[in-house]
Design brief:
Elements: H1 20-28, E1 33-36, E2 41-43, E3 47-50, H2 57-70, H3 78-96, H4 105-123, E4 133-134, E5 140-141, H5 145-152
Parallel strand pairs: 1-3
Antiparallel strand pairs: 2-3, 4-5
Helix pairs in contact: 2-3, 3-4
Bound molecules: zinc ion (2 copies).
């Protein structure tokens, strides 16, 4: 059985078979680099890593393109990270109309929730369970335990 591949689709690629959408995005954003990877990601300043084919493939690609359009850089502050995730989805929502991709809002909320849970987990003090705060050097500090430590010095 013959399968017609999109022009750029390499052998062993996990990209969706029908790639007219990707071809168009690449044409519309010639300055961004599109590479294949194990999962979707944005590598500043302009590389978009495309994950394997899945139900929400188009949405996820638009999301990473959203990061690139917003000019996001990596931040040490996790709170900013969540803000960037929200921004990238807003951008994805904007450009989705041009590509006739319908966004599944429940999926977006789930995606954002994983970041919120991750932040919550990360900010919890492993010793006393209190919510810690983060300084720009990306270190977490517990308001209770650190005072205790300093007093002991
Ligand atoms: Zn993102
Ligand atoms: Zn603590």
């Amino acid at each position: 059985m013959d399968v017609i591949y999109s022009q750029d689709r390499k052998k062993g690629s996990n990209l969706p078979l029908d790639n007219a959408f990707l071809d168009r995005i690449k044409r519309d954003y010639p300055n961004f680099r599109f590479v294949e990877g194990r999962k979707f990601a944005f590598r500043p300043p302009r590389t978009i890593v495309m994950g394997p084919d899945e139900t929400n493939w188009r949405m996820l690609l638009l999301h990473e393109v959203g990061h690139a359009i917003c000019g996001h850089k990596t931040f040490n502050m996790d709170v900013k990270r969540i803000k960037m995730e929200v921004e990238a989805w807003e951008k994805a929502r904007e450009i989705a109309k041009d590509y006739e991709v319908s966004l599944n809002e429940d999926f977006i909320e789930e995606e954002l929730d994983t970041y919120r849970d991750w932040l919550h987990q990360k900010s919890r003090c492993p010793i006393c369970g209190l919510t810690r705060f983060q300084t720009p050097d990306s270190q977490y500090h517990c308001p209770s335990c650190e005072t205790f430590k300093n007093n002991k010095k």
